[in-house]
Amino acid sequence: MSGVLAAAAAVPFAAVPVLGALSWLGRPPAERAVAAVVVLSAAASAGLVVAAAWSGPARADLGPWFAGFPLVLVADGWSAPVGAVAGLLGALIGAFSRRYLHRDPGYLRFYLLLALFVAGVQLVVLAGALDLLVVGWELTGLASALLIAFFHRRRGPVAHGLRAFVTYRVCDVGLVGAVVVAHHGGPPLAIGLLLLWGSMGKAAQFPLGGWLPRAMEGPTPSSAICYGAISVSLGPYLLLRTGPVWSQAPAVPVLIAVVGGLTALHATLVGRAQTDVKTSLAYASATQVGLVFVEIGLGWHALALAHLLGHAALRSAQVLRSPSLLHDHHHLEQALGGPVPRTGAFWERVVPRPARLWLYRFALERGYLDAVVVDRVAGGFARLVRRFAAADERWVRRLAATR
């Protein structure tokens, strides 16, 4: 089964150079052919993952890339379900996008990025070593950021794609650091803390989740697979896969549960005040992934995996459905002869009015996280760098004047 498992990881990658070469040569094929390449590669990858793990855990040892960097793939009870769902959702999004992006100038570019994303996800899921997982992790982050900035002629998508990319880079330091510490036999506590930090960026956990609602600037199909379903699931999957390491440090599960609980609470409050469907779904995704973090911290790993897969399938369908939801809502109001009854009356009776007003302001400002993270933390760091640059320039001028 090692050959089947290797093919499961290689097939999605094969679509990337094919589409990339056609784009480079300026000879794009027909839209139907482009979609078929990505859809078939993603579906084939899902089928090969299931076939490899059908009779039990499978392992493919492809030898070292270089000393200390093993190329090992594993299909077991953790990776096989996630790999199958990721491949099937990739195929579904590819089929859906054929008509959604029909005659879009970036049609081929979208499918190239989608193929790169699916390939990166399958490498993350099937990697049998953290070294190889980092490669897929970075490919997934790159494809996600480029999909957010897909409509690059507008300022908003580019700015939001850059914000997601910066968040990924800041948190990926944790994953790379965990690999280095693990190679040097470091303590489980340090590895666990670094892995938690690395997973928080991808999973949009508190207080680093401000990029997730802004990621909806990308095309709806990419929002469905990246930010509603698969990309945000890679953070919890990383913790599930590395559980035997960080579970040896009692403080790490507690911190995982605390981060997940804070995220779920914050995203629930903020999501209730949003006025557009895709932003509401983004915060709903953050809420559910936060609950998965809580389940992982409590040691309910099987429940967390089932929750993760169910959420990925449901949220993808909801995001794909979102463009036509408003139209159907108007039809429902016409059928009812008036507005649809609103929800939340229970909380209005339970929560005092001053508290409700404060919570509403808190939700409208998205928990004031942008003011803290962007203006205070990132802005303060940028101001510090500018001061160092100005001091360095003054020092150079003084040295030049004395010569």
TrEMBL record:
The keyword Signal does not apply. GO terms for biological process: ATP synthesis coupled electron transport; electron transport coupled proton transport. This is NADH/ubiquinone/plastoquinone (Complex I). GO terms for cellular component: endomembrane system; membrane. The chain crosses the membrane at residues 6-26, 33-54, 66-96, 108-128, 134-152, 173-200, 220-240, 252-271, 291-314. It comes from Saccharothrix algeriensis. It is found in: Endomembrane system; Membrane. GO terms for molecular function: NADH dehydrogenase (ubiquinone) activity; NADH dehydrogenase activity.
